[in-house]
Amino acid sequence: xxxxxxxxxxxxxxxxxxxxxxxxxxxxxxxxxxxxxxxxxxxxxxxxxxxxxxxxxxxxxxxxxxxxxxxxxxxxxxxxxxxxxxxxxxxxxxxxxxxxxxxxxxxxxxxxxxxxxxxxxxxxxxxxxxxxxxxxxxxxxxxxxxxxxxx
Length: 151
Known about the structure:
The chain has helices spanning 3-33, 39-48, 59-62, 66-78, 100-121, 125-150, and strands at 53-54, 82-86, 94-98. By secondary structure, it is mainly alpha-helical.
C-alpha cells in the first residue's frame, strides 16, 4: 500500500471517530440545555440569531428541506419564538425573525450548558474556557477547510 493510501486510511478512522464524537457532543449538549423544543427547532432558532431569513435561506444552515422548514416556522411562531413578516423588497416573500422569547430560550439553555461544562471539566473558568475555545477552533478549522473544498 502506498503512502497516500495509508494516509487516507488513518484520516478515515480519525474522521469516523470525529463524526461520532461531534454527534455525541451535540446530542449531550442539547439534552443538558433542556431547550424544551425539538433539536430541529433549535437549529432554526440558532440560524435566525444573526438576523431575519427567508424560508429558502434556512435550508442550508439547518439541513432541512423547504417544506419542513415551513412547518417548523409555523410551530415556532405558535410558541412565540419567532415571527414571520413580509419582505419589504419582495412582498411575495416571507422572512422569519427571532422574537425576544426565542432569544431568551437559546440564552437560558446555553447558560445550562456552560454550567455543565464548568462542572464537568472541573477546572477554573479560564482553563475551561481555553478547552472549549480550543475545541471550537479545531472544529471551525475543519469546517472551513471542507467548505472551501465543496464551494
